[in-house]
Amino acid sequence: MDRILALKAVRGTRDTLPEEAEGWSDIEALSRRILQTYHYREIRTPIFEETGLFVRSIGETSDIVTKQMFTFLDRKGRSITLRPEGTAPVVRAYLEHNLQREGSLGKLFYIGPFFRSERPQAGRGRQFHQIGAEAIGSPDPALDVECISVLLHLFRDLELGELEVHLNSVGCKKCQPEYKEVLLQYLRGKIISLCPDCQSRLERNPLRALDCKRERCRSIAGEAPVLMEYLCPSCSQHFKEVQAHLNDLQIPYRLNPHLVRGLDYYTRTAFEVTHPKLGAQNALAAGGRFDNLIEEMGGPSTPAVGFAVGLERIILARGGKLTTPARELIIYLAPAGAEAHRQSVKLLHELRRRGIKSEMDYQKRSLRGQLRLANRFKAKYVAIIGEREVREKVVSLKDMRSSQQEEIALSDVVGVITQKEASDLEPVDLERPPILG
Q: How far is residue 110's CA from residue 144's CA, in Å, rounded to a whole number?
């Protein structure tokens, strides 16, 4: 009996007791509702995978692979690892089940436990829980901004208070090699001051030094050459468009040229959302593009972007109980042309702020193709925005149930949809103070 009473949860793990579980469920339900509003679909992958999946995707020089993975041999001698992050398993499932055959943007999200052998501290256990999302199939910079917008939408509804968005571009295969060589030359001159880990992997991947958490390495990284200055024209243009969309949506952000993610698969956009209550390790959520990962894992060349947020970090920042009813897709925006696309991004942002489940085309389909996709999504309405509509500041709103079409002012779209669907929409507090300082 004494031995049974002495049993405790393994260090770095914890039990979620009934009085806490309800709050967790509410956060998860809110997350599902918001992600579904942005037309992401849930996917659930196994808790363990073959070890090679993570070595191949995350990078063999990363801290996760070299220090933090829980790896063991199964009865047949195969190396198995408890999943330390969510993107690689989602991509593996995307390829294994041929999800790209649907021909549309693959928008997937997950909620679940992950595992890393780290020193336990507040908000960081050896078993932790994440909410993550991946949008696979488009290089559109607006999709990068959508990921940031989803996070801010979630944190606003969780009433997390003042937040800060940090933004950088880590370039691509074209511009990273030149920067790595410049960085390598700089770090070689500082090698005596680097920690043993950064010294050992310096020649293989000097970028790892920029992500080191040790104070002396952080100080050296702060004086290092800036990757942003070495971006190729394509990456530079992509980064400018990301910033333009953030400005259009009035989302404040801070350029952080030393921000790199701890996973090798990131390309171009990298971002973090930080919270002042989280101390030195203040990242509440993070993400970015991984345009090469799917091809490196054996699939076709496929651009993608995503993010992950820690549930324990949310609870540390606030905690709270929320209710979240799910709803169907109400309106699909079908733009034609660059300016129509930009106007659609702004309109989509406002619709979602009002709690209206909505989506738009990010893949430059023909109008016929967009209508076909909207029909497959079972959207109630389609807002068609072409060159004429942009000039005249109107949209052609098609009721997909009756096939009737009417022309309304662009500025009236949100009000018209709200009025038509008033009985199905949750009240939204638009007077709530902004969460960004």
A: 18
Tokens found for residue 25? 């469920």
Residues 270, 401 within the same domain:
no
Residue 305 forms beta bridges with which residues?
135, 289
First to last CA, the chain: 55
pLDDT digits (tens, 9 = 90+) for 87-131: 999 999 999 998 887 667 899 999 999 999 877 776 678 899 999
What's the whole-model pTM score?
A: 0.83
- The string of pLDDT tens digits covering residues 41-81 is 999 999 999 999 998 888 777 778 878 888 999 999 999 99
| Domain extent at residue 114 | 2-174+231-317
What's the domain count of the chain? 3
Would you say residue 302 lies in a domain? yes
Task: Please provide the DSSP assignment of 364-422 as one string.
Answer: ---HHHHHHHHHHTT-SEEEEE-HHHHHHTEEEEEETTT--EEEEEGGGHHHHHHHHTG
Both 78 and 108 in one domain: the answer is: yes
Q: Are 265 and 214 in contact (CB under 8 A)?
A: no
CATH number, domain containing residue 105: 3.30.930.10
Distance CA 312, CA 28 (A): 12
CA 57 from centre of chain: 17
- Give 195-216 pLDDT, tens digit per residue: 887 777 777 778 777 777 788 8
State the burial class of residue 291 (Cβ atoms within 10 Å of its Cβ: 0-12, 13-18, 19+).
buried
